[in-house]
Amino acid sequence: MSTARPSPPDLPPEAAAAQLVMQVGAGHLLASALQVVVQLRIPDRLASGSRMTSELAAEAGVREDGLYRVMRALAMVGLFDEESPRRFKLTLAGQMLRSDVPGSMHPMALWITSPFHFRTYAELIHSVRTGQPAAEKVVGMPVFEYFTRDRDLSEVFNNAMTAFSEVVIAAVLKAYDFSGIGLLVDVAGGHGAVLGAILARYPAMRGILFDLEHVVGGAGPRLEARGVAGRCQTQHGDFFKSVPPGGDAYIMKHIIHDWDDERAVAILGNIHRAMGEKRGRVILLESVIPAGNEPHFGKVIDLEMMAMPGGRERTAEEFRSLFARAGFELTRVVPTESALSVVEAYRAG
C-alpha cells in the first residue's frame, strides 16, 4: 500500500477565488517575516548547511519558538526548506538572501520590507484619494528630503539601490552596446555601480557621476575597486536645476520613474540643454509596462512610485511622449534579462 499523501481534491471555483483573496491580503505578513530573517541574518547563519532553530535563535538572541514560526511560514513559499522538524536549510531563493553572494538580495529585502514601508502603505489610500505621496503624509515632507535627515534609512535605501544596480547592469551590458560614447554622464547615479561597470567594460570611455553631495560622497571606494576612478569625475548638484554639460550620452537608472510627467520633463529638458548642439543620446534603465493583464513586476513597483516619491512606471508610448516634450526622439526599447529595459532616445533635430 502506498504511503504517499493523497492529493487534495480540486477546489470549487469560489473556494479557489477566496483563497486567492486571502493570499493577496496576507502578503504583508510574509513581508514582515522576511524583514525578521534578513535583520537577524538567518540566511548568513545557514551558509554552511542546515541547522536547528534552537541554534539559530541562540546566536541571534531571539526566542526559538517565534523564529521557528517565522521560518516555517517562509519555507511554505520557498525561501527555506524544513528538512526535518525544526531543522532548516536554504533553498536557491534563500541563498540569494545571504549578504555575501553575488547578486545578493539582502539589501533590497531590508529596504522593501522596512518598517518605513509598512507605515507608508498603511496610508496608500491617501495617494489614491489625493494624488499625493502617502510617504509625505507619514513623514511630513518629500521622501528624498526625509532621507537627508534620517541617515540610517538613507543608508538602507542607497545600499538597496546599489545592489539592484549591480544586478541590472550585468543584464544591460549583455543586451546593449555602449560603443561610441566618449563621455557618459550618470545622472543621479548613486554610488556609481552602473557607471563603474560600464567604464570597466569600455576602457576608452570617460564618465561623470552626478548626484546629491551626501550620496556621491560614498562612491569613491566603489570606483576605485572597479579600477575606473582615474576616468570618472564625481560632481554634485540638483538635477532640477542643471546637469553636467558636454556629455555624449546621459544615463539614468530608475530615476525618471520617481517623478510625475512635469518633473520628468524638467530633468530631461536640463539634459537637452546640457548637450548643447550635440545629437546626444539619453539612456534610461526603466520598467516598460506591457498592456493588459500580463504579469510584470513594474506594475507592482508602480504602487511604490505612487506612494513614495509620487512618480510612476510607464508604457513605451508614455516614454515616447515624455521624450518628445523634452526635445528627444525615442529610438528603441531593448529588453534585458533583468526587470528593467534600456529605453534609448536621441536629441531631436
Structure overview:
The protein is of the alpha/beta class and 349 residues long. The protein has 2 domains: 13-103, Winged helix-like DNA-binding domain superfamily/Winged helix DNA-binding domain (Arc Repressor Mutant, subunit A, Orthogonal Bundle); 165-347, Vaccinia Virus protein VP39 (Rossmann fold). The chain is built from 18 helices and 10 strands. It has helices at residues 13-25, 27-39, 42-45, 53-60, 64-76, 92-95, 106-112, 115-121, 124-130, 134-139, 143-149, 151-175, 193-201, 213-216, 220-226, 261-274, 297-307, 316-325; strands spanning 51-52, 80-84, 87-90, 183-187, 206-211, 232-236, 249-253, 281-286, 328-334, 341-347. Helix 2 (27-39) packs across helix 7, helix 4 (53-60) crosses helix 5 and helix 7 packs across helix 12. The chain is globular. It starts with 12 loop residues before the first helix and ends with a strand.
In short:
This protein is α/β, with parallel strands linked by helices.
Number of domains: 2
Report helical residue fraction: 40-55%
Rg, rounded, reads 23 Å
CATH class label of the largest domain: Alpha Beta
**Averaged pLDDT, please?**
94
What percentage of amino acids are in beta strands? 5-15%
**Unreliable segments (pLDDT under 50, ≥5 consecutive)?**
1-7
Largest sheet: 7 strands, mixed
CATH homologous superfamily placement of the largest domain:
Vaccinia Virus protein VP39
Overall form? globular
> Pairing-aware structural class of the strands and helices?
alpha/beta
How many helices in DSSP terms? 18
Proper CATH architecture of the largest domain = 3-Layer(aba) Sandwich
